[in-house]
């Protein structure tokens, strides 16, 4: 029985179900730029058939359910559970088929991240482009947190070689390299950390830009000031991180009335850094974080919200949420599953309980002290009454002793 999938991808991608023609695109299995785990990519041509040289790259991510849940897709009034039929939908959604209720997403991907990841570990020498790819293809990629099995040491060689022959890859590799002419007329390349950092900072600033970034325009900077006018949808584009914007506003760290434009900008930049760091090796991600200082944001957080959940956590594609500070272990790099995250949420108390835990109780008396004193008063009262009764009962006996003595 053939495996079925539901995919969302650009309408320009010439992919067909059960097609082995030379015009269909070929998937490439490459090391992920951050984790070196096997990742799936699809080169394609935005301007012509796939037989021409591809000029764009897509990352393929699969959204699946937990093992204890079941779900399926209904397509054209038919439940796609295990049948071999193929169904086509709109130009924005291609349905090859559906088996387990999962969803495959094809999203645009910049080969620059792969170039930085692969080149940053090579010796800093001028080398020809062909020799660069020979070194990359023969390199043993080890996944984060665990070494790759010996029989899989060459699992990427064929696809890495094919990937290196693409024109769009050669262009992006040259963007992060210094070059010099060789005696035979060929061009030699050497990875430049400064050029890579410049391009990465440009990406961070573009994501955080109020005009066409992912957060939208800045909020009013004065408490009594009206909110700045929203830009047209065509100018701002789709805001993919509206939940993040609301979270920043809820924590009063990056949005809302009364915050200066500098604080809002720096908080957006800090979050955008972690978005970009999802596709960077830990050493390069550390350099990117160190390139920003955030003086206004740090001063504000030290007084208001020193431990911002939104600013310290970001989404890792296909791997749940995880903190990105430091090199970390496999869990720090997003190895947790949805089940682990759900158990963690269940182990926590309600929002009110968690908020009460953060209340400053310095100088306040504990409940044990208050109820302890009350209990002491309650127990001492019966004791005093009992002593009075005991003294009264002792009086007759004393009188008897006096009578006996007089006799």
UniProtKB/TrEMBL annotation:
It comes from Rhodotorula taiwanensis. Its main location: nucleus. Pfam families: RNase_H2-Ydr279, Ydr279_N. Keywords: Nucleus. This is Ribonuclease H2 subunit B. Residues 19-110 form the Rnh202 triple barrel domain. It is found in: Nucleus. InterPro entries: RNase_H2_suB (IPR040456), RNase_H2_suB_wHTH (IPR019024), Rnh202_N (IPR041195). Residues 113-289 form the Ribonuclease H2 subunit B wHTH domain. Residues 320-358, 374-407 are annotated as: Disordered. One of its GO terms (cellular component) is nucleoplasm. Non catalytic subunit of RNase H2, an endonuclease that specifically degrades the RNA of RNA:DNA hybrids. Participates in DNA replication, possibly by mediating the removal of lagging-strand Okazaki fragment RNA primers during DNA replication. Mediates the excision of single ribonucleotides from DNA:RNA duplexes. One of its GO terms (biological process) is RNA catabolic process. Coiled coil: none annotated. Residues 380-391 have a biased composition (Low complexity). Residues 398-407 have a biased composition (Basic residues).
